[in-house]
Amino acid sequence: MADSDLFTAVQLGPYTLSNRVVMAPLTRNRATDKNVPQAMNVRYYAQRASAGLIITEATQISPQGVGYPLTPGIHNDEQVAGWRNITDAVHDKGGRIFNQLWHVGRVSHPSLQIDSALPVAPSAIKPAGDAFTYSGLQPFVEPRALDTEEIAAIVSDYQEAALKALAAGFDGVEVHAANGYLIDQFLRDGSNQRSDEYGGSYENRTRFLLEVLDAVIEVWGSDRVGVRLSPLNPFNDIHDSNPEALFSYVVQQLNSRKLAYLHVVEGAIQADVDSNTAFDMAILRRQFDGLYIANGGYTKQRANDALETDRADLISFGALYVANPDLVARFKQDAGLNQGDPATYYGGDEAGYTDYPFLE
Ligand code: PHB
């Protein structure tokens, strides 16, 4: 769509979004210690409702899916009630909001699990690095490899969470298949060494993702379900011997599902991309039949360039949305941007969360 810019409307599934500025999912660790969204979270999301679409912070589908302190879930009634306050506030301001469904797999920690259970994963391969726990950083543990028979129960947890997201008043859901969490762990040969039908070939490694998508689509319909991938992001010690071939296969499989969108983290969120495995995301954009949301350090200028040259249909902004609740207005007016304070990104109170100033 060569004649579009960030401020042109776009049809996303059944919704006409008023602009192409998407608020990217951002973990902020400000739910209660029971993983329930609370009042300050309502203010935070309502402040950002002028985005064409908000994608929530990653949200656990089950107690087993938890990987960090004070992150919200969507698996019990208190959480549904907490999220309902958020979706109502965003809708009152004319916004749209999708819930990002998350299971962290092997990067959890026994201290975050019921009965101190081991985190689960496709294979018993310990990632390098540390887990975030209530008592600080602790080394990752070797996860327990899931039995084949257990996988269907996790797929059904995704479906239950999708039903709860519907009850909470969301406009859709995004399946989090990025950033080294459980679904990404199944996709990659660095973390998936299974010998059953969930490991080995691309078809087998993609099976879990597609089963999750199909389960969630049964609840929402395909046009209100998106998916997020991060082919080049090594976060959480995730790696694959051939990400270009793997993700080309994945995207072609997604086409048959007619999803609301594909959301791609185009680079790395922390470390540098390994130049031996790097490839051009334009390949995936061309292979995908539906809407493509690009993410990764975009400025207004780069975003409009990407839209003009048809490298994306929408752009999501993470860090800029931490500090600029009125990012759309600031972009429109070419106003200055607030600087975010990394010291208050994760955890804390309303300081550095709901107190960034709006334009006059
Ligand atoms: C994080 O908590 O740092 C985090 C969570 C979800 C992501 C990426 C990073 O997808």
Q: Mind telling me which CATH architecture this is?
A: Alpha-Beta Barrel
Query: Rg, please?
Result: 19 Å
Helix content: 25-40%
State the end-to-end CA separation: 33 Å
Characterize the largest beta sheet: strand count, sense, and whether it forms a barrel.
8 strands, parallel, barrel
Per the CATH scheme, the topology name is TIM Barrel
Write up what this structure looks like.
Helices cover 30% and strands 16% of the residues. It is an alpha/beta fold and 360 residues long. The protein has one domain: Aldolase class I (TIM Barrel, Alpha-Beta Barrel), CATH 3.20.20. An eight-stranded parallel barrel has the order 3-4-5-10-11-12-13-14. A two-stranded antiparallel ribbon has the order 1-2. The mean pLDDT is 97. The protein binds P-hydroxybenzoic acid (PHB).
Task: Break the fold down into its secondary structure elements and pairings.
Layout: E1 10-12, E2 15-17, E3 21-23, H1 39-47, E4 53-60, H2 77-92, E5 97-102, E6 120-121, E7 130-133, E8 136-139, E9 144-145, H3 148-167, E10 172-176, H4 182-187, H5 202-220, E11 225-229, H6 243-255, E12 261-265, H7 282-287, E13 292-295, H8 300-308, E14 314-317, H9 319-323, H10 327-332
Parallel strand pairs: 3-4, 3-14, 4-5, 5-10, 6-9, 10-11, 11-12, 12-13, 13-14
Antiparallel strand pairs: 1-2, 7-8
The structure holds P-hydroxybenzoic acid.
